[in-house]
Amino acid sequence: MSTTNQDLLTRRANAVPRGVATATPVFADRAENAELWDVEGRRYVDFAGGIAVLNVGHRHPKVMATVKAQLERFTHTAFQVSAYESYIELAEKLNALAPFSGPAKTIFFSTGGEATENAVKIARAATGRNGVIAFCGGFHGRTLLASAMTGKVLPYKAPFGTLPGQVYHLPFPDADVTVEDSLKMLNFLFASDIGPEQVAAIIIEPVQGEGGFRTAPTELLKQLRAICDQHGIKLIADEVQTGFARTGKMFGIEHSGVEPDLVSVAKSLGGGMPLSGVIGRADLMDSVPPGGLGGTYAGAPLACAAALAVLDVIEEEKLIDRANSMGERLKARISTWQNRKDLLPISAPRGLGAMIAFDILDGHGSTEQRAGFASAVCAKACEKGLILLSCGVKGATIRILTPLTASDAIVDEGLDIIEQVLAELA
Ligand SMILES: Cc1ncc(COP(=O)(O)O)c(C=O)c1O
């Protein structure tokens, strides 16, 4: 008998610890662009894109071709042993795209967590300071320093004991927190816990991803930039989820016009290959002595080859424009559900470009989120053939991360399923 999802779930439960959670009970067999087939041959529309990794879709032909060509030449040397041109070329391309003026340099790693941690290492080396300021609801990875910077206790921090110190959190502006509130807390922090001259970096997502697709107000980013300039603090834009056309610009921070000092990137850069990096002002990037940065697999040849193709695809297929048109389509449709009494109550859609989310609310006319309920919506969507993810500090947010290469027909098919789910769960 052929393998079933249920067989694999049982084997998984016995062989793999529960600490790595999986959003769906579906085991992948193959995938193309914005569609995935499970081991039982069932087809799904993919609105998750491997958690914001597949802006160019599953197995983009151009990405496949460059990876295959690289596979024929070599798969690994370690950049620290024998370097290769694709790493350099990719760094050159990202330096040219860097969302700040002046010379840039780029270094590569494998995961988003490595990128955010290394951005902090670089900021610490450049400033000779320790402190890091992050935001409540932010997510920067699961390694120890990244967990410390992440602004959510459960499930990311609670069981892991003492996390690396001198990491502080500010409230992120939202319905009940203004930009002034956040900045006031920063002043309290400077007075009570850590002086600004001890802070190496402020790290912020231009749009919080796991935290609920909440856009950082431009005014906040501007003020943070000014405070960083005043005190010699480095501003890190964590673009791991927002990068590479998702928000309707190459980088999310570009919406604000604010220029960061360091940018952490990952996810969609590699088009499905594990690749991350830090793009930064050249003088900062050179503050770490040789050997202080890197990793055995960091900037692996197959991943660099894939990323070069990803950047070409973003340009050739005008995916920045596509993110904006897809986002408008998503928002227009979701807006029509907002006041329908036959559907679950939801908030207005929000987000930039094609990084769109909405909240499940407590009741029609309420603005309170229905805590924890988004996972029920996603589970029902999966039963109906749509892979959909939740997010948000309260677990009440549905997030849409459809590949930017998806057709309008696929987008509409996924939206039809969400509408059916909102009707059935109403
Ligand atoms: C903004 C942001 N930073 C960092 C990370 C961590 O990336 P990774 O899971 O590849 O370590 C994520 C992952 O979701 C993210 O969204």
UniProtKB/TrEMBL annotation:
Cofactor entry: pyridoxal 5'-phosphate
GO BP terms in the entry: gamma-aminobutyric acid metabolic process
InterPro entries assigned: 4NH2But_aminotransferase_bac, Aminotrans_3, Aminotrans_3_PPA_site, Class-III_PLP-dep_AT, PyrdxlP-dep_Trfase, PyrdxlP-dep_Trfase_major, PyrdxlP-dep_Trfase_small
Pfam assignment, any one: Aminotran_3
Enzyme Commission code: 2.6.1.19
Name of the molecule in the record: 4-aminobutyrate aminotransferase
Family recorded in the similarity comment: Belongs to the class-III pyridoxal-phosphate-dependent aminotransferase family.
Source superkingdom: Bacteria
Keywords from the UniProt entry: Aminotransferase, Pyridoxal phosphate, Transferase
Organism expressing this protein natively: Acetobacter indonesiensis
GO molecular function: 4-aminobutyrate:2-oxoglutarate transaminase activity; identical protein binding; pyridoxal phosphate binding
Claim: Transferase is one of the keywords in the record: yes
Enzyme class, broadest EC rank: transferase
